[in-house]
Amino acid sequence: MALRELDYQQKVLKRLDEYLQVLAHQKASTEAVVAALQLAARQTHNPALLQHAPDFASLTWNELRAAGKLPASRMQVDYSPRTDGTGQTVPNVVFKVPTGGGKTFLAVAALPRIFNQWLGRNTGFVLWVVPNEAIYTQTLRQLRDRQHPFRQMLDVMSGNRVQIMEKDTPLSATDVDSKLCIMLLMLQASNRQNQSTLKMFRDRGDVHGFAPPEGDQQAHARALAATPNLNVYDMADGAYHWPVVKDSLGNALRTIRPVVVVDEGQKATSELAYSTLYGFNPCFVLELTATPKDVAARGGRNPLVARPANVLVEVYGKDLDNAGMIKMPMNVTPLSGTDWRDTLAAALEKLHTLAQQAVSLQSNTGRYIRPILLVQVERTGAEQRDGQHIHALDAKEWLMNVGGLEEAEIAIKTAETNDLKEPENQNLLSPLNRVRAIITKQALQEGWDCPFAYVLCALAASQNMSAMTQLIGRILRQPHTEKTGIAALDESYVFTHHAKSGEVAEAIKKQLEQDGMGDLVQEIRLPDSGGGNSGDGGRNVRLIPRRSAFAHTEIYLPMVLHVADDGVRELDYENDILLALDWRGLDVATLVQEIPDNLQVAEQQMQRIVLTDDVEKPVVAELVGAVAESTAFDTVHAVRMISDIMAHPWWAFVLVEEFVNGLRQCGFSDEKLGRSAGILIARLRQWLAKQRNGMAENLFKEKVRRGGIQFRLRTDRHNWKMPLAEVTFEPKGAAQLANDNGVPVEKSLFSPLYVNEFNREESQVAVYLDGEKALQWWHRNAARSHYAIQG
């Protein structure tokens, strides 16, 4: 299934692009300063001058802050520098994304940007660190599945040269040079003091090409000089009397200098985790977390420098809700009765109601949803059924004998029993799956994912509130990450047994804050109980009608539709336009003519640091262009570098060959082509993007002319219809949106409208429109839930 790139995801990736652009500029400027300091240090025999070298990562952060491109909540927080195990600067950014916000997608989408814009290549090594086994298993499955969109994104980036690895997978330098290698690692496995991880630093027979030849003393010395934190054998126990680098996975990682992705970055802030991850000598660290953790300074015997999180961009719970990613509002029903069966009955009744709505949805749209009930019990062990506590088997028997569910529709997920592993239960989203209720205590931990879970029946809430709130996140994800348009199927439901309303609301509030969705606390709804225990923080949904003059007016707006033999549907720009472009008639000769004969490559564009045997000059900087093996133009690499623009590799290969042959006819030698490869590919990408946009525009207009794309009102159901009422969560009597004279607006289509539902810019526009005499009515279009077009 294709992925939609949502508004907030585009915002995150755009900010990353801006960061990488500034980072590359600051790095180039810093290298020039460092080169000058190195020269001065050698001439004056004063190595202390190198201490004044600027930190390009900090300079990048300061430039973004001055431009107002950091989150408002972090504008006053200074950048926290990061260095690897050799003392080199490591760029580090944090994406603050709520739980369920698609952190894996953002990480995958960030990789081609980091590799292309920062490292200048599309192959290499990624160390992907996850916090627990559930997320490890899920991520590994997604990245290995060639049909999964995440894997397909990586295949496009690397030209189908992806290798997904675990820590025990054989590793060679050839793989790292020619493929995009992604190794998954659990956080505890990367802990340097953990016994299982000490194996990472032991010699292995399946790690090749990273350590020098065994008996070459000078090669080992050069390797240690280049990477001082490599592990070596104990000379007292070895066959050699000089330091010998171990041929281990840990040393390979330190030599590779990988890009590191840290899922749930707030769990990797201990000194041990921090030193271990940065001890792998990463060239870039991307953290994703719902709740960034700022490490405070510490004095005493073990002092610690403050280490705040470098949050580049923040995503809020409301962003996810607007994008259709989560089921909100959350309806919480605390039942104070003594019989747990009453609570389970209420939850099951809600499940049946949702199931009826889902059947109606499928009959009208073909979209399949099977609502699932999660039941949290007090006991699960075979020897723990004592008649005093609510046991998993008690709940299962009631659901079958009284609730009317069949045994195949109930699954138990505990430490001892896991019905979800049965072949028929593994794909909970399949129409062939029959599971409608899952009974657990706390086995559905972070990483378990089923968007069909709608209702949580917490029978153990009064005994274990924290376990109940941990399950909240399991019912939040919206099926297919798209609202259904049926209110009941776009919300989530919690029923708690024998728990106080206020305590439940407070516990859920804290959990939402931990999941990065504290701004959605107002979306928790608690029913009025009639006894003053309604939960002051809850707000109920109400419908706002149209003004009487327009109450019965039918208002339709056209949609951008794709009309073909297979029917009428909304336009999919990527599939209907970009993938339909015909590149065969493209003449690259015009680009060849634009390339000047005296094309110059900036000398400071990229440098390589080389170790020598010269005692006086042990370290020298060489221009990459002067290295013989770098002076050949790599056609295959060029094809991969334009694959995001020109998706057809065979046409891309032909075009690159024509481009290179045209340059040769203009006098470009092989040496000049290789030396200028970077800038030539950049010019080719710019030209192709311009051609693609032009062809896409022409194809779009041609399809419009032939009727293949339509934007007009139709007599069938393919129009957008203005609703007759609008939803509000504001209480009656709340402050209304008013004009400059303090009078409520008079020309809005729906009335009344409340000031808390408008931001400053929206309210200013609304008040301006309301004052226009020629205007009959106006309406604020809500993102993602109201009218939208593309084209």
Number of strands: 25
Largest sheet, in brief, is: 7 strands, parallel
Shape, please?
Answer: globular
Query: In percent, how much strand structure appears in the residues?
Result: 5-15%
Mean pLDDT: 82
CATH architecture of the domain at 326-539: 3-Layer(aba) Sandwich
**Amount of helix:** 25-40%
Tell me the name of the CATH homologous superfamily of the domain at 326-539. Answer: P-loop containing nucleotide triphosphate hydrolases
Structural class: alpha/beta
Strand order of the largest sheet: 3-5-2-7-8-1-9
Return the CATH class of the domain at 326-539.
Alpha Beta
What is the end-to-end distance?
Answer: 21 Å
SSE arrangement:
Layout: H1 7-44, H2 56-66, E1 92-96, H3 103-119, E2 124-130, H4 133-144, H5 149-158, E3 162-165, E4 171-172, H6 173-178, E5 180-186, H7 195-198, E6 207-208, H8 217-226, H9 249-256, E7 259-263, H10 271-279, E8 284-289, E9 311-314, H11 317-322, E10 330-335, H12 340-365, E11 372-376, H13 392-401, E12 410-413, E13 437-440, E14 453-458, H14 465-470, E15 492-497, H15 501-514, E16 524-525, E17 542-545, E18 556-557, E19 560-564, E20 567-570, H16 573-576, H17 589-594, E21 607-611, E22 619-623, H18 635-641, H19 649-665, H20 670-675, H21 677-706, E23 709-711, E24 720-721, E25 725-728, H22 760-770
Parallel strand pairs: 1-8, 1-9, 2-5, 2-7, 3-5, 4-6, 7-8, 10-15, 10-16, 11-13, 11-14, 12-13, 14-15
Antiparallel strand pairs: 17-25, 18-24, 19-20, 19-23, 21-22
